[in-house]
Amino acid sequence: MEKNELIALAWQAAEKAYAPYSNWQVGAAVLGENGTVYTGCNIENASYGLTNCAERTAIFKMVSDGCLKFTAIAVVSGETCNGYPCGACRQVMSEFAAGGSVPVYISGKDGSCLTAAMSDLLPYAFEKETLLK
Predict the structure, then answer these.
(1) Angstrom distance (rounded) from CA 53 to CA 131
(2) pLDDT tens for each residue of 55-99
(3) Beta bridge partners of 97
(4) Which residues, at least 6 apart from 10, have a Cβ–Cβ distance to it below 8 Å?
(5) Residue 123 C-alpha from the chain's centroid
(6) Residue 86 in contact with residue 48, Cβ under 8 Å?
(7) With 52 labelled, which of 10, 29, 75, 119 sits at a CA distance of 20 to 30 A?
(8) Which are the catalytic amino acids?
(9) How much is the CA Rg of the chain, to the nearest whole Å?
(10) Would you place residue 133 in the very low, low, confident or very high pLDDT band (cuts 50, 70, 90)?
(11) How many C-beta atoms lie closer than 10 Å to residue 132's C-beta?
């Protein structure tokens, strides 16, 4: 799947965001290792700590469908490419990315796009191998 196709699907997901408090709509699309694209949007809550980010929504949908790894992710929001994943999302992304070189596309409405490797976004992630030692 092309980068621009994944970004377009993320924008479609952003339209479904429930963001009455921040008015900041975020969308994400992950390409599962199985070839399926899973999308998600941010879902806010009056109790802010219960809010869920678009990235985690998409990844949790992927996992609940039985796919445990993704090979690319697109995250979109705002006018420019400044809607970077939060720390919690980076950790979840790291857990389910199919390696550190998985591309992360961060895009804004103006068409700008930053492409980063997963390992560049979270160089010292908690990892299963470390925790089991």
Answers:
(1) 25
(2) 999 999 999 999 999 999 999 998 887 889 999 999 999 999 999
(3) 70
(4) 27, 28, 29, 39, 54, 74, 75, 76, 107
(5) 17
(6) no
(7) 119
(8) 55
(9) 14
(10) low
(11) 6
pTM of the full predicted structure?
Answer: 0.94
Going by DSSP bridges, is the β-strand pair 27-32/70-76 parallel, antiparallel, or unpaired?
antiparallel
Q: Which two tokens stand for residue 110?
A: 């103006």
Torsion, CA 35, CA 114, CA 124, CA 53, rounded to 10:
-70
- Which CA distances in Å does 118 have to 2, 23, 98, 99? 18, 27, 9, 8
Mean pLDDT of the chain: 95
Length of the chain in terms of residues written? 133
Identify residue 95 by its one-letter amino acid code: E
**Cβ neighbours around 109 below 10 Å, total:** 13
